[in-house]
Amino acid sequence: MEKHSSVSLRLPPPDEGPGPSVELLAESRRARASAELASARMRSLQSLTLALSGALTSEDVARAVVVEAVRTLEAQTGGLYLLEARGSTLELVHTVRCPPAIEAAFTHVPLGANVPVAEAVRTRAPLWLSDFATLAERFPIAADPARPEHGDLSIACLPLIARDRTVGCLAFIWGRAHDFDEEERAFIDMLAQQATMALERARLLAAERSQVERVGLLQHATAMLATSLDLGHTLRGVALGLVPTLGDFCIIDVMGPDHEVRRTFHAATPECAGLLAASHWRPPERPGTPICALASGQPVFAPQVDAAWVESTACGPETLALLRTLAPTSWLSVPLDTPEGVLGALTLGHCLSGRHHTAEDLELAMELARRASAAVQNAHLFHQTQQALQLRDEFLAIASHELNTPLTALKLQLSRLRRMSSDGEVRARTTSAVQQVDRLGRLVHELLEVAHLSEGRLHLTPEPVDLVDVCREVLTRFTEEKERAGATIFLRADGAVSGRWDASRVDGMVTHLLSNALKYGLGRPVEVEVACIPGDLARLVVRDRGIGIPAEQLAHLFQRFGRAVPLRHYGGFGLGLWFSRQVVEAHGGHIHLESSPGLGTTVTVELPRTPETA
Question: Is there a contact between 231 and 379 (Cβ–Cβ < 8 Å)?
């Protein structure tokens, strides 16, 4: 009987499903995909960190974050919004592959709008919309512009919060519906955190740059205001420095001493400059929106300007037409205020740039106005001083001429009386009177010289002159003064010291120096030395041993009406040294004074023997 062997195979039932090995394989694939995704996201964060390290502005940050996030998240569209300064509007800073309809509808988003980005910022919480139906149900206003032509969509919006302050929002759109798992939400949240830190750093850098720029602007304006008393030139320099940092145009209106308002301006464009050149300050015609602080004396701060604001002004047809043409987007005007009243106004405006003034701009403008007010006051005071000096010099010139006529007549009458009288006492008294008239005549002559020199009318007539002879001639006229002072004058000269000088001017200079030496010499000897020195120079030294002059007073003595002693103790106008200096320097020479209290004074004059003015 033949035996057969057989093998039987048992197949699993068809409904028992895959075995453990298949499940392990699928799990392995999921783990690998998850690891690859995590690795890709890590690389994305590293790449973003590197890109943000070089981002110095908010625009740079927005560009880097949105581009990297859209690439890594495989999103259809991405964008970054920033909350504008007033905190009422979200502005789209940068977007990637945004459909034109969505970009046009959501470039400027009011914070109160019922749209996803505004909702995320208001609630300060991430917003996850997994499909279009959810979007349409919760935000019907945003549904129409975002409606996909085919398929579905999902949206993620994450608020950007820095130090408990919301600065903006990140928004992404996918062209499909999907749920956001925990890992994806955590990754997008990390992107938002990176963006927030970078935006805060960019804000701090921008604030630092702005502060440096403002300090530089303030220093420049201060330097301009301090360098010149020419008000027109100074204000033009200030206006030039303020554009475009604080405005697209700058207007400075200043009321002059004649109460006429003069306008200085600068603009960023020739067209704007042309408009301002034809404009003038006008007072308001009726109560309305103030545009210039000169009228009200109060700051005008309108960071957001529109057509309605322009039309509400009451500044008259000419200024209204100017405002309509300029079409400002922001306006700022601060008064140039002083204790005596408002002298003018500094006005700044943005137009073509579309920028808006901030509270910091107002603060800086007010500081500039304070400094400009001081400069305007100084310029007005300088102008008034110049006018007063001109009037004084005119008075001195007229008074000198008018006084000379009666003095000459009086001297003639006294001289005639002296000749005709045989009475010795009468002759002595008339002689003394003539001497006093001569002294008064010299004082009048000094006043006339002041007027001439103030007007720049010191004309020289050089001729051959012996300085020793001039000194001897002057000494003969000081007989009475020497006797009255009880002093002696010694003239020392080895020989003639000749040169080409104006004889009358040199005579007057020597007279003033000797008069001072006798007046302040306490009756002690006065020395006069005349000599030739190397360099083809003549030297005159007048030395007394009188009261001397304190060191702190020396700098003022060569000024007009400069004095180092009380007027009630010593007469004179204080013009002698000033006049002597004018004469010496007009001849191309130098005058120097050395003095010590109680030891006396030495005045040294050096004159070129052949001056260039000859």
Answer: yes
